[in-house]
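name: query_chain
kind: protein
chains: 1
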Amino acid sequence: MALQLGDTAPDFETDTTEGHIRFHEWLGDSWGVLFSHPKDFTPVCTTELGYMAKLKPEFDRRNTKIIGLSVDPVENHKKWSVDIAETQGTAPNYPMIGDTDLSISKLWGMLPASASGDPSTRTPADNQTVRNVFVIGPDKKIKLIIVYPMTTGRNFDEVLRVIDSLQLTAKHKVATPVNWKQGDDVIIAGSVTDDDAKKIYPQGWKAPRPYLRIVPQPRG
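structure:
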């Protein structure tokens, strides 16, 4: 079964480049990003892993942990990190899972349950569906799923933008409009009545339509 938004993120134990972990325990009370790769030493993924390392301080600032996954062994990940450092300027500074038995990829719905075989003989094309980004909340629920083709590099700036929105809307009864970014106006959630909105926003709001109530981004 494919995972859906709102599902509990499947827990697992695994070896990573930073030691053995149990996923839920490792996540703790943080937000998390799990992003997956079909094979080590692949060109697009090399650029992604390096860029994610450069962005790590931004994720740290948002109380968000990063973890990568590839179907190859952890020892291969460590060798790959040398290439990533030399070509991208930054080596991975977050754990990378070695999913050699494909169990996590299957558990998270990225490969069919029938998938099998020695990872060293599986090609990137065999694993092409292992190109997901999952954002997980502190409640261990899945908040975002994006799946990319192998030929399109991921936009991790967009993932940061979505996390900003998720964290804001989890705290305040608002939604964010198209192309929203930090500091932009937001929309009062449809679940908030006008009477309640007047208490929260005594200064009022702009409403080009009754269902579209626009206010400045809440602070704090």
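note: The mean pLDDT is 94.
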